[in-house]
Design goal:
The protein is an all-alpha fold. It is built from eleven helices and two strands, in the order H-H-E-E-H-H-H-H-H-H-H-H-H. Strands 1-2 form a two-stranded antiparallel ribbon. Strand 1 and strand 2 form a beta hairpin. Pfam families: BPD_transp_1. One of its GO terms (cellular component) is plasma membrane. Belongs to the binding-protein-dependent transport system permease family. CysTW subfamily. It is found in: Cell membrane. GO terms for molecular function: phosphate transmembrane transporter activity.
Amino acid sequence: MKTESLEVSDLKEKLIEKGLLSITLISVMMILLIIIFLLSEAVPAFNQFGMIEIFLNHQWIPDLNLFGIMPMFISSLLVSFLALVLAVPLSIATAIYIEELSSMKVKELFKPVIQTLSGIPSVVYGFFGLTVLVPFIRDYVGGDGFSILAASIVLAIMILPTIITLSQDAIRNVPFEYKQASLGLGASHFQTISKIIIPAALPGILTGIILGFGRAIGETLAVLMVVGNVAQIPSSVLDPVRTLTSNIALEMAYAMDIHYNMLFVNGVTLFAIIVVLMALTNYIQHKWGC
């Protein structure tokens, strides 16, 4: 009986192993198919215009056969970087407070709040930006309200949960002995946080920042509603712009021929940015073992 039971157990383990392997292979195949599809649809545009013309041309006017993605590329980076500038200090400060300074009751209060922020649909953020931020910027800051600033504020709110959660995990995973040793040598709690805990947790915090940037640059609907959607290189954060994601969303419904292929070039560019961010994240995790 024991032998039969062991054989059945081994068979179940092998079936589970094979099943998990199959699911992994299917996931990899799906990703490869997406990459192949993106590249195959973008190749005609690369062949007709060339990469230099596509990435250095400052004009996107499909009716005149001008398909430069430089304005959208620059705008996407500016909107995402400004969102990080707004979100990172608040996220790290919140993570430090929750993990190092707050009471258990406060931690229990913040946990559902952060989870709620991460679960709110992007269209709700976009609607908030459209009805509150855009009029406020127009009336009290300048411009017509639809701008890099409005999109960056909306994105900053959206990426807060990602950066806060990963920063909390990084701070929580710092060995308690580090804190004990620092306090034992006479350092204050603030000195311990700033000189010991944050440097030790920095790789994990950087990972959260990079993933937050990836979330920001890939967001479509919320940005589409508040950014203004003008294909131009901005000279101010109050200028309306168009990002790579919003460009695809706006024009894919009616694009034809080479215009259709050029929108896939937008997609390939976004995919390349995400790949670089993931590679950077993996490098940080491998380098510092976080």
